[in-house]
Write a structure and sequence with these properties.
Elements (H helix, E strand, L loop, with lengths): L1 H15 L1 E6 L4 H6 L2 E3 L1 H9 L5 E5 L2 H10 L4 E3 L15 H10 L4 E5 L4 H5 L3 E3 L4 H7 L4 E5 L2 H8 L5 E4 L12 H10 L5 E3 L5 H6 L2 E2 L2 H10 L4 E5 L4 H8 L4 E4 L14 H10 L8 H17 L2
Parallel strand pairs: 1-2, 1-3, 3-4, 5-6, 5-7, 7-8, 9-10, 9-11, 11-12
Helix pairs in contact: 1-13, 3-4, 4-14, 11-12
Bound molecules: 1,3-dihydroxyacetonephosphate and iron/sulfur cluster (SF4).
Iron/sulfur cluster (SF4) binds next to loops.
Length: about 300
Amino acid sequence: MKSKLIKKINRLKKEKNAVILAHNYQIEEVQAIADYTGDSLGLSQKAADIEEDIIVFCGVDFMAESAAILAPNKTVLLPEINAGCPMAEMITAEKLREKKKEYPDAAVVCYVNSSAAVKAESDICCTSSNAVEVVKAVSNKQILFVPDQNLGHYVSQQTDKEIILWDGYCITHHRMLPEYITEVREAHPKAPIIVHPECRPEVVELADFVGSTGQITKYAQESNAETIIVGTEMGILYKLRLQNPDQNFYLLNQGLICQNMKLTSLENIAEALEKMQYRIEVDNQTRIKAQEALDKMLEING
Ligand code: 13P
Ligand code: SF4
């Protein structure tokens, strides 16, 4: 059954000249058939540079939207229309416009986990892998960092900027508590604990390494540790185990699951290609402004 579906996807991909991009949190079988897997920055860079006519984006809606902004002449499909990001929904363009009035001298740095309309209201975007670099590159002393309070706090610890935080957070990473680290340290005293910067400051403080999903996979490849404890969404385990078969990887806690990232399946990827659904489009006015903010970020990461 699965092999039939994979054949169908590969046939449709060829016929339609499509490419499949998948985030590191996707289910194993989706990551396995993708042409490219990566973190938000890697996927944005890839989308901006794609040759095929169609991008099937296996992730959540803001990621497909970023691809549509960066590759305006391509057709971008999100196989599962209900795959959203609760954090991205914690801010609207209207609320951001209001906040900007309170801080007229601040530059708005917007985490890519946000809608196109919010990006269009921002000066520059960032991802979890380049947030510190982006904030340092902005000339303003004051930064309005939206929407992730935890990533914003992490950045504030590494720059001398005045960072104003929005109160958004990732419901998956925010569930992680410092006591989980203390417990796991007792059980695995030699194992490095590596976490995503979307975790709470109290968790980040106790970790041995903090990074995006791409940086976490790089860390593991360069580490000689027998066992590594991972504080990010469980989907990352697929790549970690594939790339490092001799190492043991354990999740910091079983609550590290993002339901939205689990909605995409081989079935709906095949359907997406067959029916050309669900097309992600951004109106031109929003797209142009959002693209400026994304392009400025991509210029920093050359
Ligand atoms: P990265 O893959 O860029 O670290 O993003 C994590 C995330 O939460 C995406 O939704
Ligand atoms: Fe959003 Fe968190 Fe899920 Fe990423 S892991 S899509 S930030 S809810």
